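cron nightly-structures :: item 1 of 1
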Amino acid sequence: MVKEKKSWTRERRYVLMRPMLSIPKIPDIPEEERTPLVVTLLEIIQLEQEQIQALKDEIARLKGHKPRPEIKPSKLEQDSKDDKNKDNKGRLDSAGKNERGPIEIHETKILEAENVPPGSRLKGYEDYTVQGLVIKPYNVLYRRQRWQTPQGDWIVAPLPPEVQALGGHFNKTIVAFILYQYYHAHVTEPLILEELREFGIRICSGEVSHIITEGHERFHEEKQEILRVGLEVSAYINVDDTGARHQGKNGFCTHIGNELFAWFQSTGSKSRMNFLELLRAGQEDYVLTPEALQYMRVNGLPKAQLEILAEQGQKSFADEAHWKAALFSLGITCERHIRIATEGALLGSALEHGINPELVVLSDDAGQFNVLLHALCWLHAERTIHKMVGFNDKQREALEEIRTGIWDLYRDLKAYRAAPSAQEKVALQRRFDELFSTQSCFATLNQALRRLYNNKAELLVVLERPEVPLHNNTSERDIREYVKKRKISGSTRSDLGRRCRDTFTSLKKTCRKLGISFWQFLKDRLCGTGKIAPLSEHIRRRAMELDSS
């Protein structure tokens, strides 16, 4: 009896486990029985089955089992890009200069031909250029005269201005090299130290760290000026953020920029209040302008509190402490009311200090960036459609038809940017309405189309402002620089280190956009020669060139 019970128990366990070994197939349901609720439930079941299969694949991978073969689509059907068919002749470097242009010659050597027959005549030279790089120590000993006056005082010959500017025992080339390697080439401090020592430079790790993070106030000031002028002359900005851990805690780095400049700032928050604080470009005041009061009204500040602020005699407050004290004295103590009022006052401060009131903020639909005139990225909007997978032929056909329609509309919007017209504007608006109000057999697709239709005004900003791009690729590319540095060096440990990372990333990316060599920029700023004008002046000049064209 005992043996039979064990056998029955083993068989029962197997029977109970069998349903878990395979997922039963969904039975076919006739079209007349497919109500909207049934269609939605079928799509939910399909999504859950895909998630279960993905979990199974991950479990198999962790156990070391052989994964399922992945069949990729044929590349024969893909259109090759035009730039892949081009050769490298006349290719431009990052500074916009032709790589095959004239090369500066530092030394010329005459080579005599051998076994020249008598009576031969010299007909000139055939040039052959070899490029090289000289890397060796170049140490200078300054012997400073010391004089003692009759009164017993000492007079010592001063150091040259360039040495005094650096304030250390390393010349501008070494300092620029360390900054270039760390912030431009993403080389870590230990490797920079090893590199310099192999070149014959006697330097310690503390001195390398000091050069990387300290004594760069002039760079911090220029970075802040980049944002101030960029916001003043720009018709639009691209914005995005990414994770940036600091001192073992989660943080965020916000990017603001366009084709003229790139600016980064790391903070502990990515709220709308934080974004508005950044738009002030270093200012600390809070200002109650008509635009600030309008922002509070639109965002739901109660009428009573709004009237109190509108009747407030003082319109400008020096800093956060004065602003909070004013709110408390006016009886505004609710956390939500304080937040809305503060966001409005921050926006008023930004506008008061020269930010373009018609500025378009182009983002990937993150809520904190929804200020001023907000525009959405079409590529991010289409991703919700791109991720969907139909579970029958009709749904797959509907999905492909919608995606084709979206990209056709996208291409026509790009053409409209190049040559806007009132007739085309009306036609594009009508096509948008027709496309995103489509009712298909795919319930999940219909919901996504409704969400995109509700964002019509933000997706079609280009019809009113053709200068605004249709995508947020500028921010995506710029912020990738910060992500690469984060992957190599990890999080920052000191506030000064975090500040320097933001500053030099901003300066480097802005130099690249303006066609300025970052290496030459570093040497110019370290020596104080002033041959390269402030980047803010370059931004103004480039903005004027774009406006005139």
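cron nightly-structures :: done
The chain has 23 helices and nine strands.
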